[in-house]
Amino acid sequence: MELLGLVNIGETIFKKTKNLSPELKSNFTFTKGTYFGDSFIIARATAVFSLDELRRFYKDLTDSFDLPVCLYLTSCSNYAIKALVKDGISFYAENRFAYLPFLTILGKAYKEKSMAKVDKLSMVCQHLVLYLIFSDKRSVTVTEAASLINVSKMAISKAFDELEVLRLPIRTEGRTRVFKWDLPWGMLLRNVLPKMSSPVKAEYRLSEKADLKATYLSGISALSKLTSLGDNSYQTLAIIKDKKSLEKLDKIETIPDYEKPEMIVSVMRYIIPYKGGSSIDPISAWLSLPENYPGDARVRFETGRLFSRIIDGWDSSWPLI
């Protein structure tokens, strides 16, 4: 396959499609593309589809394969090209336009150079690591991990890339990448905790209590349940973004930081219920604390002791950031 006369892509037959839905099999043919050692799936559309159909097909395809996916389109309007680029959908409009952000034009050496440093873990990677720690799951493939935390295989592949850069054990078994951890979880946490960040996406400091479903204790409210720390006079709760909850929250007046709220609600990027209970996991609770808390010596001391009790191999003298 030649992309606009600029890049030649090697193509081979790709037959591993038995797990695809009949709809995908009937609407696409598949080959495997390679460029400087990078592989991806080329999905050739057998007909012209609407934008909504292409978006849906692309999501289904990326969820079905461990490799990146490129839609090959024989017909594509200017409007569709702009919309697909805006949506971040990888595609090739025959003889007109190519958008393959995953393709490392300078080859694998450039890819390795660009991955040489991870300053902060992506939220998918952070979610995955904490899920594995608190579920004590010591071996997971890309497909299994995607199912466990309900994200795409491509997102997990990128998370595995991050772990690999940090020299954590990503192995290849056949054609499958596997994360395996045989040491105490505390040693893994010590490696990645400095690269973690707050999972709070938005915070509501409410002037009155909100009646919300599917809430969990978060922040100092969660830590106070597991330590001798006292909670505030108001609770801090965590929710995952959903339309009904946000509509309720938007109807309640919020107050500034210097005033005491009746309740704080944190909209989280992920939630891992601790031991299936009413609180989020203690590490995310610690990461969710506002800036004035981590500097408090007693909060740090009690949180360190908590980690040493619940996380195998964690030393309470180790720094929390």
Structure description:
A six-stranded mixed sheet has the order 3-4-5-6-7-8. The chain has helices at 22-27, 51-64, 78-86, 108-114, 123-135, 142-149, 153-165, 185-192, 219-226, 243-250, 282-287, 297-310; strands at 2-3, 7-8, 10-13, 28-35, 38-45, 69-73, 91-93, 97-99, 139-141, 170-173, 176-180, 200-206, 216-217, 235-240, 263-268. It folds into three domains: 2-99; 115-195, Arc Repressor Mutant, subunit A (Orthogonal Bundle), CATH 1.10.10.10; 205-304, no CATH class. The termini are far apart. It is of the alpha+beta class and 321 residues long.
Q: Roughly what is the average pLDDT, rounded to an integer? A: 85
The ordered H/E elements are EEEHEEHEHEEHHEHHEEHEEHEHEHH
Total count of strands = 15
Order of strands, main sheet, comes to 3-4-5-6-7-8
Write out key terms for the chains shown:
alpha+beta; Arc Repressor Mutant, subunit A; six-stranded mixed beta sheet; four-stranded mixed beta sheet; 15 strands; 36% helix; 21% strand; globular
In short:
The chain has helices spanning 22-27, 51-64, 78-86, 108-114, 123-135, 142-149, 153-165, 185-192, 219-226, 243-250, 282-287, 297-310; strands at 2-3, 7-8, 10-13, 28-35, 38-45, 69-73, 91-93, 97-99, 139-141, 170-173, 176-180, 200-206, 216-217, 235-240, 263-268. β5 (38-45), α2 and β6 form a beta-alpha-beta unit. α5 crosses α7 (153-165) and α6 packs across α7 (153-165).
